[in-house]
Amino acid sequence: MAIMRMRDALREALREEMLRDERIFLMGEDIGLYGGSYAVTKGLLEEFGEERVRDTPIAESAIVGIGIGAAMGGLHPMVEIMTINFSFLALDQIVNNAAKLLHMSNGQINVPLVIRMASGGGSQLAATHSHSLEGLYAHFPGLKVVCPSTPADAKGLLKRAFRDQNTVVFIEHTANYGLRGEVPDDPDFLVEFGVANVMREGTDVTIVGYSGSVHQAVRAAQMLEEQEEISAEVIDLRTLRPLDIETVVRSVKKTNRAVIVEDAWRFGGFGGELAAQVMERAFDWLDAPVARVACKDVPLPYNRNLEFHALPSEEDVVEAVLGMFKE
Amino acid sequence: MTTDIQHDLMRELGAERLGLFLYQMVLIRQFEERCGELYTKGKIRGFLHLYTGQEACAVGSINCLEERDKVLTHYRDHGHALARGVDPNGVMAELFGKATGVAGGRGGSMHLYDVEKGFLGGYAIVAAHLPLAVGLGVAAQMKGEDFVTLCIFGEGSVGEGEFHEALNMSVLWNTPTVFFCENNLYGMGVPFKASLSTEVPKLAAAYNMPAVSVDGMDVLAVYGATREAVAHARAGKGPYFIEAMTYRYRGHSMADPELYRLKEEVEEAKRRDCIERLKGQMMAAGMLDEEGFAEVEARARAVVEEAVEFAERSPQPALDTLFDHLYKE
Ligand SMILES: Cc1ncc(C[n+]2csc(CCOP(=O)(O)OP(=O)(O)O)c2C)c(N)n1
Ligand SMILES: [Mg+2]
Question: Closest ligand 1 atom to the C-alpha of B155?
Fold first, then answer.
């Protein structure tokens, strides 16, 4: 075990996997000489050379498309989209080729590809640069969608992504890059997909988060315990596809209440899907309607006060929970 | 009509190989005409884009490849699949949506695949397969293999960003990619001149790759140019671009009322027909007579009829296979 930041845990995962499997190579904008926009790939060009760590032109759809082609040709590429905001330019490649080729070719062509992207708001980057799209990617059958919230998970899930025969969209919340935590150094350490993490056990309410919102959920749970004597269970989904709904439902059957927290817009967001599944499977156990705490339905403004007013906060989570206990 | 260079090429290829080219072009023509009929009868549904008129492009280019090479193409893909040796029964069954189709009835006309034959698919999003072809080139380089990827697309692709991104990166990374643009003068109903401010080979040349334009109604011209392109790519000299000037006789798809062009223009193009041309050249060279040509036609007809019967009697995919091949274990 070592204590490290999430960005370093991610780099460790890339390094170990590249050492293990020579079919793995990396490509993306500024991942080499510059060291990566969030320093995840720092030093890898020096260690692995230009063939395996490729700086690309600013051409998101070609970057992903070339990754898909290389995967079809027997390699296991990792492409980095500098931030999730630019993945709109590659959306067709991700949705129409990466997610569909296996099914459309009746099993003949698979696309073992890892697409990493930095995501999330809260950094005063304004509307074009502050998206949370985990749920968008989770909408597409054929993709796997992973969004770690801790350094250990980041490493274990990213290593697991390279053991997958399918395309994995791997989303890293920028607020998490600097988080420190214990990370196993066992090169065989993997975190399985579709297994949610119960971050904190509780009996009165289940708070579900993923990616950046997990930490708000945890802080809200602490506040609830200290200020309100409410015991909250916090679940980090870790992967949205596959989704570990069982763990959520089991928890809700125990606590009888569920709050979903996400950075994405409420309208049409992943939280709606989750709420529906909880109601389908645990309706009779619910003492209150499932609550959603999400981003307000506006483009995120630059101004700090406005941005934080739009984004969900731990206070919002606490308020949502308290609302469930009112008659 | 037949230049000196072509005389040499004909002599080099010989009667047998030229006979194969002729047969493949006739097979594609008949296959496509039959598909048109079957569409009207409701046996084939969805979008159906026929290749009639463009046969020399598929046959002239794909026959330059080795078994280990790869082909990617757009949605007008039956001709390319057949020229690559994909089983006509499997192609027709796919158009019928049957379980025995090359994609198990999941792809349809626009998405044919046969990985064993190195036929890596028809792609129905304009220009989306160009980056894939470059990626396959990266795979060849990194694995130390010398396969070449032939990437076929319509001239409508030139308006898409991915066209430019792919060309640029293939040169930057020196990938073994042959870009093959079938310029049939229309992207649906948009005349080519209204969609590109320059000429196609100039675009490729601007990215610093060798680029030629050839008569795509002349299978020998296509073959000659593609052979050079493939050799160039295989030798590690990087990508190569070919524009083949051609013409589609039928509408863009079966739904096209063809308001954008005159019948006379179509008739004019048919006077340059690729099958008639090779037939004439072979006859002049004493490699073929009318009887021999009739045999070629009969052989192709039998294959097409067998494919239709195969497709007819093949089973529908079982409903419980719906979720198959969503993820690979
Ligand atoms: C990205 C995208 N935009 C639009 C279409 C609709 N569309 C299908 S075919 C076509 C014309 C393409 O023309 P061209 O590339 O010249 O090929 P051709 O049909 O002439 O063989 C269009 C616009 C599409 N399939 N993909
Ligand atoms: Mg065209």
Answer: 16
Q: Which CATH architecture has domain A2-183?
A: 3-Layer(aba) Sandwich (3.40)
Mean pLDDT for back-to-back runs of 10 residues, chain A (327 residues): 96 98 98 97 98 98 98 98 98 98 98 98 95 98 98 98 98 97 95 98 98 97 98 98 98 98 97 98 98 98 97 97 89
Contacts of range A162-166, beta carbons closer than 8 Å, 24 or more positions apart: A162/A17, A162/A21, A162/A24, A162/A76, A162/A78, A162/A114, A163/A190, A164/A112, A164/A193, A165/A110, A165/A112, A165/B327, A165/B328, A165/B329, A166/A102, A166/A110, A166/A111, A166/A112, A166/A142, A166/B327, A166/B328
Two domains, one topology: A2-183 and A197-325: yes
Q: What mean pLDDT, rounded, does chain B reach?
A: 97
Neighbours of A298 (CB within 10 A): 12
Residue of B nearest to A79 (CA): B135
Identity (one letter) of the amino acid at B59?
V
A46 is catalytic: no
For B35, residues 6+ apart whose C-beta sits below 8 A from its C-beta are B44, B48, B50, B78, B92, B95, B109
Q: How far is B170 from chain A (nearest CA, A)?
A: 10
Chain B residues within 8 A of A88 when measuring between CB atoms: none
What's the B243 CA to ligand 1 centre distance in angstroms?
17
A145: left (phi over 0), alpha (psi -120 to 50) or beta: beta
Give chain A positions within 8 Å (CB) of B137.
69
- Reduced DSSP (H G I as helix, E B as strand, rest coil) percent helix, strand, coil of chain B, to 5: 50, 10, 40
Tell me which DSSP letter residue B114 carries.
B
Question: Tokens at residue A240, please?
Answer: 């949205």
Indicate whether B326 pLDDT > 90.
yes
Residue of the CA atom closest to atom 21 of ligand 1: B154
CATH topology of domain B4-186+194-312: Rossmann fold (3.40.50)
Which runs of consecutive H residues, i.e. helices, occur in B176-289?
192-195, 200-206, 219-234, 263-270, 274-284
Sign of CA dihedral A206, A212, A216, A218: positive
Which helix (DSSP H) or strand (DSSP E) does residue A44 occupy?
Answer: helix A44-48
Interface pTM (ipTM) of the complex?
Answer: 0.96
Structure tokens at A21: 């499997």
Which of the following is catalytic: A12, A29, A60, A307? Answer: A60
Residue B180 forms beta bridges with which residues? Answer: B152, B242
Q: Within chain B, what is the greatest distance between any pair of CA atoms?
A: 60
A60 is known as an active-site residue:
yes
Angle at B52 between CA B51 and CA B54, to 5 degrees: 70
Task: Name every residue in B having a CB less than 8 A away from some CB of A.
Answer: 70, 101-104, 106-107, 111, 113-115, 120-121, 123, 125, 128-140, 142-143, 149, 161-162, 165-166, 168-169, 172-173, 324-329
Sign of the CA dihedral with A132 first, then A134, A138, and A144 last? positive
**For chain A, which residues make up each domain, given as ranges?**
2-183, 197-325
**Which ligand is nearest to the Cα of residue B51, counting in written order?**
1
Nearest Cβ partner of A62 from B114, B169, B328?
B169
Of B224, B216, B212, B181, the C-alpha closest to B3 is B224
The label of the residue with tokens 């099993």 reads: A107
CATH class label, A197-325: alpha beta
A139: Cβ contacts below 8 Å, ≥ 6 apart: none
Q: Is the pTM of this model over 0.90?
A: yes
Q: What are phi and psi of A236, to 5 degrees?
A: -100, 120
DSSP, res A56: -
**Which ligand is nearest to the Cα of residue B75, counting in written order?**
1
Which residue of chain A comes nearest to B132, CA vs CA?
Answer: A69
